[in-house]
Amino acid sequence: MSSLARRSSASIRSRTAHAVQMNGKNQAAAPVERKAAAASTSASTSSQLPSSSGRRLCLFFDGTGNAAFLEKITNLPTGFGLACNEPDKQLLYYQTGIGTTSLNLSAGLMPSMLSKLWARISAVVDEGIAYSLPAHIQRGYQFLMNYWQPGDQIFLFGFSRGAYTARALAGMLQRVGLLPAGNEETIPLAYEIYKKDRDLDEGVEKESAARAFKRTFSREVKVQFVGVWDTVSSVGAVIPRILPFANGSSYIRHFRQALALDEHRARFAYQPWIASDEPVPADYSIKQVWFAGAHSNIGGGLFGYDGDREPALSHLTLRWMLREAVEAGMWLNEDHLAASPIYAPFVEAADRAVAAGDDPALEAYLAKVAKSNPDMPPETAALAFIAASKSAATQDDALAPRGDSLSFHIQEYPPEIKKKRGLGGRFKDWWSRQMQRVGAAAWWALELSPTLKIYWDIEGNQRTWTLRWNRARGRVLLPDPTFHFSVADRLAASPATLLEHGGGNNENVPETKGYDFKAQFLPGQSMKNVTYVE
């Protein structure tokens, strides 16, 4: 940990302890009042919220081909590392993505070279047909089965196909419930019933197999929070696979999704929230927010990992998601936040804001956190809030490099960096650009060929199969879409500003004409229908 990070984390800890000890002094008045308010509201909300003494079970499902520190680094391992992992408060679970060699266990008995070859072939096939999807869902289910206790809250996070996995797991929990601990051998049966639900004849009345299974074997659980980055609409690049998601606004208490404005590949059609006819209860919420960038700009992992030191579009979505999760009751690790380049610049501002107590938006946020997690230190919650708010640092992230897998135009490193790279380094950079262009040609071949896709209507009431020639067309936006404030910053930036901030990383697309997102409005809608949010 750097000296700055040590000072920052010590600042958070010392201020928190100071506030507890000085509850009779002015400096600590605001934190003490917030804790008292939380105590006074706990009785009134106890009938609606799970027990505040219950733990949080947080599951992180990584994206296609992503394995932390082995393949590309996305927001999932980063978020995992920022979360609190104390058994009496919160348990964490991380799963590598579909198409990663690390999940292929069948090659363990083969010789080393054959094992590696088999693992790679299996990973490629998995990306095409997603044969490991059932295993991914069932492993997440098994974790919950063995660790969930009454009063615990479930938080599910995912990116890309990992987002699909998280939402399918929520659907499985809704349909068949959660088996008692130790029933590993029954999980495949529960999965098959979830996947192929059917009616059972029982005298005059009929009951679905899933409902009968749930009534007989399972515990009733609900999901406190689902936070996903750019869910794909089906899993399997060659053969689409679909599974039921959780539906009904009363099952998932809080749903959050960050969506990519600039993803326009056929194999990455997005899946919005599937609504139901029932009204959303007052204390439940659904937010789907659009951000600038392609699929992996939103979830992270598009460019080489730099330890999160340089500005990135994915930092915006991570801060937004964790702010929402903290509001719903998730614990973050204050030391890890202070040591993270994504959060360290905001530590002092958060401490000052808590001490001042004069920011209405922050105070309203802290009041919500106090209801969902009364023991959360206000400084930690304030850091999650301040870091996700508009600032000079977030503007740098808003103007950061953007990728486009269908573009043959690639912005090279700036001249001063090229000089330092040497002849060998410059050749490697040139070769990397050529390989990216080969990849773009392959993606274009898919764009110009028919793609079998599955679409839900906007209410999620009907599923249709269709053949579609995408031809690099942008996504169709949701009605009256919600944009993140960073999109406005990028739209307002001049081409020169974007080129300067982008800087060129030998992978990003140069925006010589300024930024104009790829997504398309529904007929009759325009920028006038957009709402900007923090």
Describe this structure in words.
- This is T6SS Phospholipase effector Tle1-like catalytic domain-containing protein.
- By secondary structure, the protein is an alpha/beta fold.
- It has helices at residues 3-21, 29-45, 75-82, 112-129, 133-147, 161-176, 187-195, 209-217, 295-299, 313-327, 334-339, 347-356, 360-372, 378-387, 392-398, 415-447, 485-492, 495-502; strands at residues 56-61, 90-95, 153-159, 199-202, 205-208, 223-229, 252-260, 285-291, 451-456, 463-468, 482-484, 531-533.
- The strands form four sheets. A six-stranded parallel β-sheet has the order 2-1-3-6-7-8, sandwiched between helices. A two-stranded antiparallel ribbon has the order 4-5.
- It is globular.
- 43% of the residues are buried.
Give the gist of this structure:
The chain is of the alpha/beta class and 534 residues long.
Write the SSE topology.
Elements: H1 3-21, H2 29-45, E1 56-61, H3 75-82, E2 90-95, H4 112-129, H5 133-147, E3 153-159, H6 161-176, H7 187-195, E4 199-202, E5 205-208, H8 209-217, E6 223-229, E7 252-260, E8 285-291, H9 295-299, H10 313-327, H11 334-339, H12 347-356, H13 360-372, H14 378-387, H15 392-398, H16 415-447, E9 451-456, E10 463-468, E11 482-484, H17 485-492, H18 495-502, E12 531-533
Parallel strand pairs: 1-2, 1-3, 3-6, 6-7, 7-8, 11-12
Antiparallel strand pairs: 4-5, 9-10
Helix pairs in contact: 2-13, 5-6, 6-7, 10-14, 12-14, 13-14, 15-17
